[in-house]
Amino acid sequence: MKLIASMLLLAAAAHAHYKFPRLIVNGQPEAADWLSVRRTKVQNSRDNGAVSDVNSADFRCFGGSPGTATTTLAAGDTLGFVASSGIMHFGPCQFYMARVPDGADINTWEADGAVWFKAGSISAVEGNGPLGGDEKTWPAYHKNDVSFVVPKNVPSGKYLVRVESIALHLAQNPGGAQFYISCGQVEITGGGDGTPGRCAQSVSLDRPLLLLLDQAGAFTCRMGVSWHANGQS
């Protein structure tokens, strides 16, 4: 019986994993997986994998292979990612962008260091009490795709765009938060002259995900703010 129970738990855990294999622009998804989204390390449908070490190089794009395509869209458009089997863990969803330097190849650029800025998020809906673990608290939970509006004042150019779905079901433990990550390759047109503030890869030891567990078992969470179209955060 213990063996059967363990197998069922493992099967449930595998089923709860997911990935973001294609972009969606203004409500229109790409025609196939891994076109403008870099392939992540883990492709097995039984274990789609997550990153838990925020200091790992995988935290940039989850070890994505070189890209093969780039999607063009305008500043102010809605950009998002399709979740392969829906977002199966509760928690926030963050979007980061990193501008590809002039002369660099977007297909192979690593986006290492303080080149990212937070462009959007789907955070908790906070009420008068501690946060729960349902869709009312976490609007991204169980969604089949998640999106944000590209800031209108972001400079034109080529960008890597990273989605981070942060699973909090084990985040009361050190290193327990699971980051489901993908990076899309885009070219922004019609942009402005904004100067987004830079941060490191995202969450780091000196800018941690602050997660508290109260006595009732509910979470409170604080993350960095997004850069807005006027260049202020």
Automatic annotation (TrEMBL):
Keywords: Carbohydrate metabolism, Cellulose degradation, Copper, Disulfide bond, Metal-binding, Monooxygenase, Oxidoreductase, Polysaccharide degradation, Secreted, Signal
PANTHER family: ENDO-BETA-1,4-GLUCANASE D (PTHR33353:SF10), PUTATIVE (AFU_ORTHOLOGUE AFUA_1G12560)-RELATED (PTHR33353)
Domain Auxiliary Activity family 9 catalytic: 17-197
Main localization of the protein described in the UniProt heading: secreted
Enzyme superclass (EC): oxidoreductase
Catalyzed reactions: [(1->4)-beta-D-glucosyl]n+m + reduced acceptor + O2 = 4-dehydro-beta-D-glucosyl-[(1->4)-beta-D-glucosyl]n-1 + [(1->4)-beta-D-glucosyl]m + acceptor + H2O
GO cellular component: extracellular region
GO process annotations (BP): cellulose catabolic process
A GO MF label: metal ion binding
Localisation: Secreted
Family: Belongs to the polysaccharide monooxygenase AA9 family.
Cofactor(s) this protein cannot do without: Cu(2+)
Domain of life of the native organism: Eukaryota
Signal peptide (from-to): 1-16
Protein's name in the database: lytic cellulose monooxygenase (C4-dehydrogenating)
Species annotation: Parascedosporium putredinis
EC numbers: 1.14.99.56
